[in-house]
Amino acid sequence: MRRYLTTPIYYVSDVPHLGHAYTTIVADALARFHRMRGEDTRYLTGTDDHGQKIERMAAAHNQAPKQYADGIAAAYQKTWQALHIGNDDFIRTTDPDHEAVVQELWVIWEKNGDVYLGDYEGWYCVNCEQYYTEKELAEGNRCPVHGKPVEKVKERTVFFRLSAYQKRLQSFYDGVLAKTGRPFIEPMIRMNEVRAFVDAGLHDFAASRTNFTWGIPVPGHPGHVIYVWLDALTNYYSATRRQTLKGFWDDDVEIVHLMGKEITRFHAVYWPAMLMSAGLRPPSRIVAHGWWTVDGEKMSKTLGNVVDPNRLAEDVGADAFRYFVLREVPLGADGDFSHEALITRYNAELANDLGNLVNRTLGMVWKYLPDGIVKRPQAIQSPFKMDGKAADHMELAQPSRALEAIWSDVRTGNAYIDQRGPWKQSGDDRIETLWNVLELSRVVGNRVAAFMPERAVKLLAQLGITKAPYWADWGDYQEDYRVQRPEALFPRIDEDKKKALLAKWAPKATNAPAPPPAPESNTVEYSDFAKLDLRVGQIVSAERIPKKDKLLKLTIDIGEKRQVVAGIAESYTPESLLGRKVIFVANLKPAKIGGVLSEGMILAAGEGSALSLSALDKDCAPGTRVK
Ligand code: MSP
User: In what order do the strands lie in the sheet with 115-125?
Assistant: First the structure.
């Protein structure tokens, strides 16, 4: 069977952390497993470069959005390399071929009558890049996912006719269950959530944005950019128009999207509807995992407890980190990350169980058979009662259970050595014991390659195996073992090293007083506020900027003349502004906006065509300080 696995494409707002690494590692383990079973498998990951969040983040770093996105996308690619991620392609939504496909789909939706122009008003969370209804908001008009304040936005938008897809989606979900015996979204609890959402009735959603520009232009609607989620979701399909993934959107391909539980609605409702509208097949399945906390807390910069996968990979090895996250939580459940638990599992399961199995076996081979050759017995027969369920668990996207099954075999091997006691045996009996354990180690070494690709190859090399890992079974090795000298695969972390590591990994904010729980505090010191040079400014000239619908070029008198570009053209005509007094930020770093130099900023409230300029209650001379 041909398979196509994907992760979400990650926002380039910040560098990758444990949560992003988790999705990517899970998908990688599944992709490797299927490849090792001989299935033609492709694995895609990438970055989500567009949207208001990125535009703002770039501005905060004084960079152009693309420049900022390039830096973070590179950090993602570097991290995935360090974590031994074997993706076949890396897509970015700023890739021109992707942009072209998104516009191509848009044109089809429009032709099919699924997009139409209208007005939208609602609460927008820039962090989620999503509108919320009043009912969905947390107390104090905050985002239900991040707890951050949402923004009231009113804008002219192009709608996507999602309401027309309720019945089709319902019967699609029913069809997947009937045909495969598995729900479209796993685990079932996430399917139930989505199903309830769809059953409650679907509303058309805003598919374009007009109050910023960092996105793919909507064909035929100047001033509109395509809503970032439509742009992003399309990556899964647009990548299959490339050489490496060609044909992987065909009907026979098992297409599986992996993701965290918070974004299933987009993938299970919007995305299939978008595909149906374009006459394209929907994905086969969605697998949703839970969220990681760290020592019981939500990961946050304020707490200083954001787990950097690069650092852990450097300190304990990428494969040990992969093993830990894959083994620690059953996929689908929320999990808690603790550095202490990482070290405990490392020592018990990697250094002891697996490391020792190989180490002591090879040690005995060299002790009793000085040429390092263990002859294959005439008639081989497995003395082991092996678990044998690992593959079934992987088929069901349950890596933690698969690892449990493999480790049960590892323990079986260790118990067998203890029970047979090769040190008490001699001749063919001893050779048989050693060959049997080597064979079990070979099976394990091969299978763990899906989870720990680099260590597995090292393990197999010590057994004298250079063939690429595959999903091996006991007894399918026809030769004598010619082993190498043992070398610790997972050197034990002793108490001193453990202390040193835990101190190094401790959250940075530990000495500071406990920060307030989320939502994060937005307060600033007065000294920060005082850094702003706010002045009364009088608008002495105003004109439109050619081809920029939202921008006006103003001259502001603050005792001296300043040229300013302001995004207020949808709310104010140039003539209406002459002579007005506004509050002006005089010490803002000059920047080019729409290609024109802007030396400051005037203050206004609201968005788009509903802007309201700041004003002064009494007459003040231009240049008067506002404080
Ligand atoms: N750009 C969108 C996805 C578009 S896909 C068409 C996005 N990006 S993201 O950068 O926020 O990354 C989302 C992925 O990171 C999800 O799989 C999400 O679950 C994962 N995680 C982010 N923080 C997480 C945890 N604390 N724990 C586990 N995974 C979480 O959403």
Answer: 130-132, 115-125, 151-160, 205-206
Q: From the CA of 423, how far away is ligand 1's center (Å)?
A: 52
Question: What is the mean pLDDT, run by run of 10 residues, along the chain of 627 residues?
Answer: 97 97 98 98 98 94 96 98 98 98 98 95 92 90 90 92 98 98 98 98 96 95 96 98 98 98 98 98 98 95 94 98 98 97 98 98 98 95 95 98 98 98 97 98 98 98 98 96 97 98 84 40 72 91 89 92 91 89 91 87 82 86 88
Side-chain half-sphere of 552: how many Cα atoms within 13 Å?
23
Binding pocket residue ranges, ligand 1, CB within 6 Å:
8-11, 19-20, 22-23, 48, 232-233, 259-260, 262-263, 291-292, 299
Catalytic residues: 17, 20, 125, 128, 143, 146, 298, 301
Topology of domain 2-290, CATH: Rossmann fold (3.40.50)
Residue nearest to atom 13 of ligand 1 (CA): 10
- Spacing, Cα 8 to ligand 1 middle (Å): 7
**378: its two tokens:** 């005439």
The minimum-distance atom of ligand 1 relative to the CA of 10 is 10
Single-letter amino acid, residue 30:
L
Q: Tokens 């007065």 identify what position? A: 526
Nearest ligand 1 atom to the CA of 293 is: 26
As a dihedral over the C-alpha atoms of residue 53, residue 54, residue 55, residue 60, rounded to 10 degrees, the angle is: 90
- The tens digit of pLDDT for each residue in 529-562 reads 888 889 999 999 999 998 888 899 999 999 889 9
478-511 burial by CB neighbour count: b if 16+ within 10 A, else e?
eeebebeebeebbeebeeeebeebeeebebeeee
According to the 3-state scheme, what is the secondary structure of 522-566? CCCCHHHHCCCCEEEEEEEEEEEECCEEEEEEEEEECCCEEEEEE
Nearest CA to ligand 1 atom 25: 19
Strand 481-482 and strand 373-374: the pairing is: antiparallel
Question: From CA 582, how far away is CA 538, in angstroms rounded?
Answer: 6
Tokens of 542: 């105003």
Domain ranges of the chain: 2-290, 310-482, 526-626
Query: What angle, 0 to 180 degrees and rounded to 10, lies between the N-to-C axes of helices 356-368 and 453-462?
Result: 10
Cα angle vertex 122, ends 121, 124, to 5°?
130
For 476, half-sphere exposure in the C-beta direction (CA atoms, 13 angstrom radius) is 8
Residue type, 247: G
Beta carbons of 163 and 115 less than 8 angstroms apart: no
DSSP string, 301-367: TTTT----HHHHHHHH-HHHHHHHHHHHS-TTS-EEE-HHHHHHHIIIIIIIIIIHHHHHHHHHHHH
Q: Could you give the CA distance from residue 53 to residue 543 in angstroms, rounded to a whole number?
A: 29
Cα(158) to centroid of ligand 1, in Å? 26
Model pTM score: 0.81
Cα 74 to averaged position of ligand 1 atoms, centre (Å): 18
User: What is the position in ligand 1's atom list of the atom closest to the CA of 266?
Assistant: 6
Cα 253 from Cα 312, distance rounded (Å): 35
Q: Which residue from 11, 263, 287, 293 has its CB within 8 A of the most atoms of ligand 1, so it is best to mutate?
A: 263
Third-level CATH fold of 310-482: Isoleucyl-tRNA Synthetase; Domain 1 (1.10.730)
| Residues facing 537 on adjacent strands | 582
Domain at 526-626, CATH homologous superfamily: Nucleic acid-binding proteins (2.40.50.140)
